[in-house]
Write a structure and sequence with these properties.
The protein is mainly β and 155 residues long. Helix content is 0%, strand content 55%. A hairpin with a 6-residue loop joins strand 11 and strand 12. It is elongated, with a radius of gyration of 24 Å.
């Protein structure tokens, strides 16, 4: 280690410990997407940059926990995309990692069909069919009466 005027220069790059989304065979659906990176540094982290291919998506500062996150509007993308994550420390040392994800534009869930209802004493049974993509479906909401004024029960 070379010391200049009593100061040990920072020559150590940050270490990227986790990224999201990461390389996988799973599909990333683009609807209010978030890119996130966790990193450490022997001194102090500064900011992160996020790229899709060669295009800069944006940058974000690291928080005190070493996490940087950024909203990603990937609605115009489709297919395989290489994401590049770059972490910078306070003196400009940089670390980089990539992830290849499959992007599919977000589509609103389809309306269920073939709704039937059976009533009983203090109970009821509702059945329906759903022909949409179950990977994009979070839940069904069943409304008791008027959707604007009645109760809602997530199913």
């Amino acid at each position: 280690t070379v010391i200049y005027n009593g100061i040990i220069p920072d020559t150590t790059t940050p270490v990227i410990t986790q990224v999201w989304p990461a390389t996988s065979d799973k599909v990333t659906f683009c609807h209010d997407g978030t890119l996130q990176m966790a990193a450490t540094d022997d001194r102090a982290l500064d900011y992160a940059e996020f790229y899709a291919g060669d295009a800069l998506i944006g940058s974000a500062d690291f928080n005190a926990s070493g996490i940087a996150s950024l909203h990603w509007d990937c609605s115009a993308l489709s297919g395989k995309v290489t994401l590049t994550y770059v972490a910078y420390d306070k003196v400009g040392n940089a670390a980089e990692t990539t992830a290849v994800v499959t992007v599919r534009p977000y589509e609103a869930p389809k309306t269920p069909g073939n709704l039937t209802a059976e009533s009983g004493f203090r109970s009821g049974v509702l059945t329906w069919t759903y022909d949409g993509d179950l990977q994009t479906l979070k839940q069904f909401n069943i409304y008791d009466g008027d959707p604007d004024g009645g109760g809602v029960l997530p199913v």
